[in-house]
Amino acid sequence: MSGLISHRIEMNLSKLSKVEQQVAQLILDKGHAIAQLSTQEIAKQAQTSPASVVRFCRSMGLKGVPELKMALSAESGQDKMTGYYDIRSDEAPDILIRKLKANTIQTLEDTLAMVDVKQLQTIADKMVEAETIFIFGIGASWLVAEDFMQKWLRLGKHVYAVQDTHLMATIMTTAPKKAMFFGISYSGETREVIKLRDIAKFNGIQTVSLTGFGSNTLNREVDHVLQTSHAPEALLRSAATSSRTAQMFIVDSLFYVYAAKDIARTQQLLQETRGTIADLK
What we know:
- This protein is of the alpha/beta class.
- It has two domains: 4-76, Winged helix-like DNA-binding domain superfamily/Winged helix DNA-binding domain (Arc Repressor Mutant, subunit A); 117-280, Rossmann fold (3-Layer(aba) Sandwich), CATH 3.40.50.
- The chain has 13 helices and five strands.
- It has helices spanning 4-12, 18-30, 39-45, 50-59, 65-76, 93-112, 117-129, 140-153, 165-173, 191-202, 217-220, 241-259, 263-280; strands spanning 132-137, 158-160, 179-184, 206-212, 224-228.
- The chain has a five-stranded parallel beta sheet, sandwiched between helices.
């Protein structure tokens, strides 16, 4: 079975409860044929209850069974998806490059299908009002945090992205009333990010999480949630290429929404910062 919703199910299968896994496996086995069944029929074939089918839909980020059916019907008319690929020993460079392209395209398609436009708009509005923005991530997520900081610094925002957790905690303790904290963690379980989220909340700072799809510790207690597709990170792709690509896509999307609110000022600020950098060369 191929398609956006099926990939989402496959990537999150292990996170589901036992009864939800029964529903998931039925969908993976029967594909778009499920779209022709009632909720009761799906439950019967999955050997579970209609309520479990509804819970499964919500676990997949869907509002209910009707949305699941729409997603499955839409998939039936799509070409086979690009898919995810891991590298193998002694593969030719052209094959490796094509695999990277396939992984990137799949990651972007899966993440795009999950983007909550209203949530992006709301967060962008809050960022306009914020006097200070704090961003934190560990490992590959730090690269995303650093890119995040550079983008908004060029638009005149006061942004802090530091790797030292003690320093970040100190800065947030003396933050102005209108401040925001962005915690970036693909797993949503990074201890340092969760600790800083708690410090932000204690100090009355609005909190935003950027994680992979699914329920996690970081998402449970933030004001706003942004999620990416949960692509598989196989052993030989442990450099987190797919997750980083997805996170960068969300940050860039948020940047576009934010910048478009006052495009004339955005263009002016970007020209000014570009001119300043040019003077350094």
